[in-house]
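Reopening: Lipopolysaccharide kinase still failing for me.
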Amino acid sequence: MAKTVVVHSDFKALGSQLQEAISGFDANIDFVTKGERNVIKKVSIGDSVFTIKRFKEPGIFNALVYQFLRKSKAKRSFEYAIRLIDLGINTPRPVAYFERFSFGLKDSYYISEHIAYDLDFRVLNHNPEYPNRDEILRQVAAFTFKLHENNVNFLDHSPGNTLIKVSGEGQFDFYLIDLNRMRFEPMDLDARMKNFRRLWLSKRMINVMAAAYAQLSGHSQSKIHELMTKYSRQFQKKVNSKKIRKRKKNKLH
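Support: Ran it again with your exact input. Result attached.
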């Protein structure tokens, strides 16, 4: 079985211990996320804590695609993290990625530094009375504007993929995670507003974020509000329709 091991130059000294962490991944019970597709666990090495994400094994066709035609999700996550940091955009520091191949990609892992964050964007969705909520929303809008100005189209810009750390009184730092779906390209206003759709914004959230984005971008607040609302509602309607169809299908069975 062929394998690829790439360790960031900042962490070369930990190479053998990182490989041991991959070998012991199944035995590790320190879960961060136990999803249907991907599993994320924590591991301590010396004084440092790292996050290991194992991606679901692809089907036969995609396994061959990832070996010969397209970069794996682990490799993309590693390379995109380096690129984001070079742009001054926060993401947990990339540490390493591992791939194993046998007639296609069998499994892959991405390792990054563990971030001790205070909340993620989902908290703002579910708790309208969260302290400093409007200010956090304004700063998320500014963070997203920074992404767009740097030609970063984060395709998974959803509530669970922005970690938030309190950095001072009324000040917050934002970290992108789950990086493998990203394009680096110029974005017009329409594409920028469409990029907000997965955040599942309420009317009040749109009011706050549209005003903040408009102030930074120079576009009219009314136009930004119109487009942000349009794409948010289209996405929400699509997701809700899928849920309804799934419930009906389950009842039939």
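The chain has two domains: 2-113, 119-240. If you still see a failure, please send the error message rather than a screenshot.
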